[in-house]
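Hi R.,

As promised on Friday, here is the backbone we talked about, encoded as structure tokens. Could you run it through your design pipeline when you get a chance and send me back a sequence?
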């Protein structure tokens, strides 16, 4: 049985099928988000079971003194996601604070997380240095990568699309999961239970499983690992816990309760800002998804160009011009040829050169803005989408929290 004919449960079997990612609602979405993150999500939502969430608690870790920007940003963020084509039918969309299980998991994971692991996360010091105007010497800020670990482990996501700066957080998540499984995945009768689970698979499958396990453990054969995982997933008559035991046994540990995720590195966004640096709110060089056509036009018209082109008759070099970077994203070969030639020979002026960029950016934004308008006009629909997503997320979260509570001996009589 192939992995994709198997309905994913909240178990180790989600490792190859589930994706989770989040965004902090601390401002307007811009073209950098669209080209760097959302287009990636749009593809992933067809291939995987996706959970995308609005990380409002994460926003509080830096914006606790003035959280008033959060609710509006969150609402617009959700609508912008929908307007770009994120489909609530294929992806579960939710708000972190509406799934309070995240807070419980964060707390429980904090029990086994050494302080040093958090202090060594590069963003901890970097952000404190970078955001000097904020006092980030708080408990919440130190713990925020662990909150992110809780977000990820809650859904047992195998893949986490993140930018370069967040890879260390996924790495921390892996360490925390490993530690958790090591400490709480040990059952006194683990080996006996594994044997029992194998028996339930039938003789032939059990033998195949042993063979694959040896090939993986002795020769590091990755393919054998994948086949064995699929074999486990394909077993209809074993329990979830048995699946986890077999997975743990396969990889040489105890029972895997929280599977280790992998970062799905999002290529650095090619989208430059208006000044040629990376597009970012903090550089004040963005084109927001909701900017009016007039604002977009004005922003592009006032973009800096090759400083050598003081007069219209001075030739320029596209390599020294941020407008050229926009052409590389938005223009076809023909237009680019026209730019290269026209710029170097001063046959075209910068205003001419910018015109196709203005048209292409507007061509991209106007349909998105049209859909934004449609969603804005249907607040009930948007609310329903969010409520459904939160409820779906919560079902998974409750399941995981239940397992974690059991593993950590938090069970009532
Ligand atoms: N910390 C991420 C950021 O600042 C947002 C985030 C929160 C996230 N939880 C996550 C991303 C879990 C991926 C997975 O962009
Ligand atoms: Fe830049 Fe185009 Fe002007 Fe050349 S002609 S400097 S590429 S805007």
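Update: got your reply. Pasting your designed sequence below so it's all in one thread:
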């Amino acid at each position: 049985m192939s992995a994709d004919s198997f309905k994913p449960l909240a178990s180790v079997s989600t490792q190859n099928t589930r994706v989770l990612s989040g965004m902090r609602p601390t401002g307007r979405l811009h073209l950098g988000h669209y080209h760097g993150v959302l287009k990636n999500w749009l593809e992933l939502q067809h291939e995987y079971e996706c959970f995308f969430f609005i990380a409002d608690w994460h926003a509080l870790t830096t914006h606790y003194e003035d959280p008033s920007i959060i609710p509006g940003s969150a609402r617009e963020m959700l609508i912008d996601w929908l307007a770009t084509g994120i489909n609530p039918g294929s992806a579960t969309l939710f708000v972190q604070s509406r799934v309070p299980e995240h807070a419980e998991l964060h707390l429980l994971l904090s029990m086994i997380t050494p302080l040093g692991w958090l202090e060594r996360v590069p963003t901890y010091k970097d952000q404190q240095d970078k955001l000097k105007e904020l006092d980030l010497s708080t408990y919440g800020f130190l713990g925020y990568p662990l909150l992110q670990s809780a977000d990820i482990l809650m859904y047992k996501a195998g893949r986490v699309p993140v930018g370069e700066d967040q890879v260390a957080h996924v790495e921390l998540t892996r360490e925390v999961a490993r530690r958790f499984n090591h400490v709480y995945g040990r059952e006194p009768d683990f080996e006996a239970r594994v044997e029992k689970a194998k028996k339930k698979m039938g003789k032939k499958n059990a033998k195949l499983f042993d063979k694959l396990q040896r090939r993986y453990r002795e020769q590091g054969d990755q393919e054998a690992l994948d086949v064995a995982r699929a074999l486990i997933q394909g077993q209809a008559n074993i329990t979830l816990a048995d699946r986890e035991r077999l997975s743990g046994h396969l990889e040489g540990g105890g029972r895997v309760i929280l599977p280790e995720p992998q970062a799905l590195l999002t290529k650095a966004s090619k989208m430059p800002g208006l000044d040629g640096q990376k597009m970012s709110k903090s550089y004040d060089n963005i084109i927001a998804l909701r900017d009016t056509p007039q604002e977009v036009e004005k922003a592009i018209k006032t973009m800096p160009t090759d400083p050598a082109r003081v007069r219209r008759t001075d030739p320029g070099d596209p390599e020294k011009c941020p407008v050229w970077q926009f052409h590389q994203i938005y223009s076809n070969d023909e237009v680019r040829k026209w730019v290269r030639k026209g710029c170097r020979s001063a046959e075209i002026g910068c205003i001419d050169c910018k015109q196709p960029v203005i048209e292409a950016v507007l061509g991209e934004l106007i349909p998105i803005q049209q859909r934004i308008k449609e969603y804005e006009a249907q607040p009930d629909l948007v609310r329903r989408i969010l409520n459904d997503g939160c409820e779906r997320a919560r079902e998974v979260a409750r399941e995981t929290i239940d397992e974690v509570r059991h593993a950590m001996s938090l069970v009532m009589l």
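One thing I noticed while checking it: The radius of gyration is 25 Å.

Thanks again,
M.
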